[in-house]
Amino acid sequence: MGEPGKHRILMVSDFFYPNFGGVENHIYYLSQCLIKEGHKVVVMTHAYQNRSGVRYMTNGLKVYYVPWKPFLMQNTLPTFFGTLPITRTILIRENISLVHGHQAFSTLCHEALMHARTMGYKVVFTDHSLYGFADVGSIHMNKVLQFTLADVTQAICVSHTSKENTVLRSGLRPEKVYVIPNAVDTAMFKPAPERLNRDEIVIVVLSRLVYRKGADLLVEVIPEVCRLHPNVRFIVGGDGPKRVRLEEMREKHSLQDRVDMLGAVPHAKVRSVLITGHIFLNSSLTEAFCIAILEAASCGLLTVSTRVGGVPEVLPDDMVVLAAPDPTTMVHAITRAIHMLPRIDPQDMHNRMKKLYSWPDVARRTEIVYNRALKCSNPPLLDRLSRYLTCGTWAGKIFCIVMIVDFLLWRLLQLWQGPSKDVKW
């Protein structure tokens, strides 16, 4: 057993290192801060190329790269019950007290939370995304989320907009959902040692070049900004299916000398790109929070962003210019930002970000959620099944069958491998 008041946490998600993104960074930095507070943290994710088995990261963070191969967008193939034996093994071997799943789109997260509840563990879920309600993909995803959250102990969202979205999609009671924002490693993201000359204004874009990130908006915005402001140059970092459209735009308008296409930028080099610019441009069409904005502000860049999702909650008004996600409004917002630049002090902005967002603060607030989750009682199986029945006329019955089968398989594993270290109901 660990020290009194200290937890043994299993973080689960399909998204983790060596990938880099908002979810991956959140899990890593949160885990590091929890370890420094004396908690034991273990991460469970799927194998990445030749990275399989058990690996150790900074401060002894133990990572299980389960030998499941991703099949779509870094997600593992749904198996429902295939991950039960290995999940049970990790929970028992590491003497886990609480399971924390991340990201609604992660198959591994949903399955691990299901198995953990079957075995009597308290579970916490963090949602990092916003989803709609009308398209086929969102309807399917929302039903899966409703299934997972029907029996979740506590939930966390990264913004108030994200909380409202999650509550509406899942039917979860609002009092069970906490808002804990992301943070930024301000020690890593520092402004340039010397202030940049403003004779040439550099606008930086760092994003996956996909539809959801507003790559199509960039195709229309960049040529117009270059036409209105001859002293503006763009640096575009990132890769994706929409990169071809941006390169075609650059050729069509002869902007090769004013639009630099960097391709994919490793996370370790993000700061070196950011500090070459004056303005950071985010054109996302949907965003629960957007850590990239925090990284840019910490480096002293003024942000221009679409007014979507949780973005308006992220920065104070004097650090960001918000615009509707349409080309004309965004061009006007960039013009306004260019006029604001003389009033921007990068070092002052960095110092303010230190106070506004820190991972130790995120860890402390998350620890409070853990404490509340562990105080919750474990309802009997029949009470849990009644929760699933409320998920829909047919879906509720299917969910109940899935949970009954999972419970029976767990009991068979107990008979085969021994129940001595399993959680007792």
Model description:
With 425 residues, this protein is α/β, with parallel strands linked by helices. The chain is built from 14 helices and 16 strands. An eight-stranded mixed beta sheet has the order 3-4-2-1-7-8-9-10, sandwiched between helices. Strands 13-12-11-14-15-16 form a six-stranded parallel beta sheet, sandwiched between helices. A hairpin with a 5-residue loop joins strand 3 and strand 4. Helix 2 crosses helix 3.
Strand content: 15-25%
User: What structural category do the secondary elements indicate?
Assistant: alpha/beta
Distance between the termini: 19 Å
The CATH H-level superfamily of the largest domain is Glycogen Phosphorylase B
What is the residue-mean pLDDT, rounded to a whole number? 91
Write the H/E string, N to C. EHEEEEEHEHEHEHEEHEHEHEHEEHHHHH
For the sheet with most strands, the description reads: 8 strands, mixed
Oligomer: single chain
Q: Any guess at the CATH architecture of the largest domain?
A: 3-Layer(aba) Sandwich
Helix fraction by DSSP (H/I, runs of at least 4): 40-55%
- CATH fold assignment of the largest domain: Rossmann fold
